[in-house]
User: What shape does this take?
Amino acid sequence: MKVITVPLSYTNCYLIQAAQGWILVDAGRQSMARSFRRQLDRLDIDPQDIKLIIITHAHFDHVGSLAQIKSMCASPVLAHPREASIIEAGEVVIPPGTNLLGNMVSWLGRHSTRILGFAKTKVEITVDQEYDLTPFGVAGIIIPTPGHTPGSLSVLLEDGQAIVGDLAMNFSRRTNFPIFAEQPAQIASSWELLINKGATVFYPAHGRRLPISDLRGIKESGSV
Ligand SMILES: [Zn+2]
Ligand SMILES: [Zn+2]
Assistant: This one.
């Protein structure tokens, strides 16, 4: 199944090819709508062919440009109900760090919530259990994978590709453990859930595509 990375600043968004059109996963930080449009033009994709926008979780770097991108695409937005309420309130939530770098960035974030603000956006579809994407022309499911936030969702395609938001990150050689997490103790079980259901490669929102064989760094046990 075709998955295209659309980098918006430091956040990867992903396009999944559907039977007719595309599904978009995540919408980048604020002020990224123009960059998104340029990349669609380069890919020769009409924004109106995006049939659904899935939000993995409500952090500002995933929903900052959602309002503008949504109006460009005219498609419904899907999120977990807990994240939906944050998106609909336009609330900037900064999660706690899980290491020194995370703690520093988290501290900075908590002191700049004003500039990280984003437009309130309506969420049409809320999902808090497995959700079949077949009606959207994609052989895959959405699975709740809590850990980074309580309402984090992942998209698992039938061929093993998994788009995981911030459940894993890939910019350190030592660990793929996210540098922020509201429920760090749940990260391992969400990784395992995806792997048990057939995930062979993770597409993180921060960092490069990550084959499961390279996945490392559950803090407690040292391995998955
Ligand atoms: Zn996040
Ligand atoms: Zn993020």
Q: What stands out?
A: Residues 35 and 167 are 25 Å apart (CA to CA).
